[in-house]
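Table 4 source record.
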Amino acid sequence: VACAIDLDTIAPVLLATRWRNKKRVYDAHELFTEMKEVVTRPFIHQCWLAIERWAVPHFPQGYTVNTFISQELQRRHGVHYSVIRNLPVKKEQRLTANEY
């Protein structure tokens, strides 16, 4: 299984997994096409939108970091991605009498 970590790696992963007949997963930890560095450059923005439209539907398995991105990718491309939050595990802390 090959994992495309965000949109900037999606094209080579798609091509390599097609060539090798392997499974693939998309890790969409941000809406790459909506980043400031992309949207402020119209030609670049259109290029990334085209890559997204072409590639994301070929990744039926994937995950993202929040519900908004999951819903937006479903709206745009019809994919259903799980949400896996990147949060630390809450550790129970006990205070001693001297720490109150």
